């Protein structure tokens, strides 16, 4: 069989969206299985069943990647690690860097105590570490420049990642964060409530309005991966925000990736307005077109639960279509994006989203 790839976005169904992505690809008669995130804890069995059913009932997985700590990404991977022989686990563990950042905290003088606290805060990652150690699965850090099979890690850099640990609201009080006021925190919570209650306004083609708020620091810790397989440029973003996507774009020339020009684009954070902007989408996907093209220029893939009424945002769907994208959301279904000589599963053709005539204020 010639080279091919299959990228499966599993339906992570809950009241909130989650990510569970399985990938099988073949290069030069060598087959690889690459899993990125595992949805919630209850998603684990679905991932196992999917891989066994569609990937030839393997017992071995080459690589498992955890983009970040959130339960809707890390939860189901414990089952994957327990059910398969896994060659390598890629995830970032904040506690490993306690000695490098302890001077930036006001409450800790002991590296050991800071390590313990970071494991408590990032408990989903700590749980996966325990399973990996028990099963002798080597763990590697997916910092910018690392290579995972055919995939290159584009973000985060170690330096930026350490800054994010210190900046996180979940992390024990740091010197940088000690000036935050309770009023400021309440304002942030109020802003989120207002955002959820936002009304819609009819908008002309090409108009784009994104949130002025940034995504969470934890989302910005997300690992961004890129691969060119069968002449298809694939970008997996996790929940990365504007900072991470900008860092990754700046790195693109170093791996000979010419932007814009992505063919398979994972829309970050289930289609949130806080993770992208006009400038960032222009850089990755190209500038806005004057009208919808007759043929899609790229596929935009969104993990969004059917019951999650907040995702994807209409403004994001519009912006992707403005650039010639065919936009697909899971919403109770599994999505498969494939290329090359991929096996025929007998699945039907997914219907792309229609263009929203309105968007959030």
Commentary on this structure:
By secondary structure, the protein is an alpha/beta fold. The protein has a single domain (4-177, 217-342), classed as Metallo-beta-lactamase, Chain A. Helices cover 29% and strands 22% of the residues. The chain has a seven-stranded mixed sheet. It has a seven-stranded mixed sheet with strand order 7-8-10-11-12-13-14. 43% of the residues are buried.
From the structure above, extract its key features.
361 residues, alpha/beta, Metallo-beta-lactamase, Chain A, seven-stranded mixed beta sheet, 12 helices, globular
Topology at a glance:
Blueprint: E1 4-9, E2 20-27, E3 30-38, H1 44-54, E4 60-65, H2 71-74, H3 77-83, E5 85-90, H4 98-101, H5 111-121, H6 123-134, E6 139-140, E7 147-148, E8 151-155, H7 158-167, H8 182-196, E9 200-202, H9 217-220, E10 224-229, E11 232-236, H10 242-251, E12 264-266, H11 278-285, E13 298-302, H12 314-322, E14 325-329, E15 335-340, E16 358-360
Parallel strand pairs: 3-4, 4-5, 5-6, 11-12, 12-13, 13-14
Antiparallel strand pairs: 1-2, 1-15, 2-3, 7-8, 8-10, 9-16, 10-11
Tell me briefly what this model is:
The protein is α/β, with parallel strands linked by helices. The chain is 29% helix and 22% strand.
SS strand fraction: 15-25%
* Total beta strand runs: 16
> Can you identify the CATH class?
Alpha Beta
Q: How many distinct helices?
A: 12
Estimated helix fraction: 25-40%
Order of helices and strands: EEEHEHHEHHHEEEHHEHEEHEHEHEEE
Shape call: globular
CATH architecture: 4-Layer Sandwich
Rg for CA atoms: 20 Å
Uncertain ranges: 178-195
Largest sheet, spatial ordering of strands: 6-5-4-3-2-1-15
User: In the CATH hierarchy, what is the superfamily?
Assistant: Ribonuclease Z/Hydroxyacylglutathione hydrolase-like
Taking the sheet with the most strands, its summary is: 7 strands, mixed
End-to-end Cα distance: 50 Å
Number of domains: 1
């Amino acid at each position: 069989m010639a080279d091919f790839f299959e990228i499966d976005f599993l339906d992570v169904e809950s009241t909130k969206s989650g990510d569970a992505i399985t990938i099988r690809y073949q290069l030069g008669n060598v087959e690889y299985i690459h899993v990125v995130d595992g949805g919630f804890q209850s998603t684990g069995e679905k991932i196992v069943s999917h891989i066994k059913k569609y990937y030839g009932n393997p017992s071995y997985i080459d690589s498992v990647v955890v983009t970040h700590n959130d339960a809707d990404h890390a939860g189901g991977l414990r089952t994957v690690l327990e059910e398969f022989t896994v060659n390598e686990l890629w995830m970032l563990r904040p506690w490993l860097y306690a000695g490098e950042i302890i001077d930036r905290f006001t409450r800790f003088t002991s590296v050991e105590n800071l390590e313990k606290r970071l494991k408590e805060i990032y408990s989903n990652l700590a749980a996966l570490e325990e399973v990996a150690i028990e099963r002798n699965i080597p763990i590697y850090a997916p910092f910018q420049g690392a290579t995972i099979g055919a995939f290159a890690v584009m973000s985060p850099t170690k330096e930026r990642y350490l800054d994010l640990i210190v900046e996180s609201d979940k992390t024990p009080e740091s010197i940088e964060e000690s000036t935050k006021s309770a009023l400021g925190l309440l304002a942030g919570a109020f802003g989120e409530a207002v955002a959820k209650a936002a009304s819609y306004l009819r908008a002309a083609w090409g108009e784009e309005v994104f949130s002025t708020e940034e995504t969470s620091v934890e989302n910005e810790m997300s690992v961004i991966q890129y691969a060119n397989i069968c002449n298809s440029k694939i970008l997996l973003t996790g929940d990365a925000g504007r900072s991470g996507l900008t860092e990754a774009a700046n790195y693109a020339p170093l791996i000979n990736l010419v932007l814009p020009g992505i063919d398979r684009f994972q829309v970050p954070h289930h289609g949130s307005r806080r993770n992208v902007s006009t400038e960032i989408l222009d850089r990755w996907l190209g500038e806005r077109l004057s009208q919808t093209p007759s043929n899609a220029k790229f596929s935009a893939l969104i993990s969004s639960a059917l019951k999650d009424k907040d995702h994807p945002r209409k403004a994001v769907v519009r912006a992707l279509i403005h650039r010639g994208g065919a936009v697909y959301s899971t919403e109770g279904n599994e999505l498969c994006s494939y290329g090359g000589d991929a096996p025929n599963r007998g699945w039907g053709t997914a219907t792309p989203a229609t263009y929203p005539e309105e968007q959030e204020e």
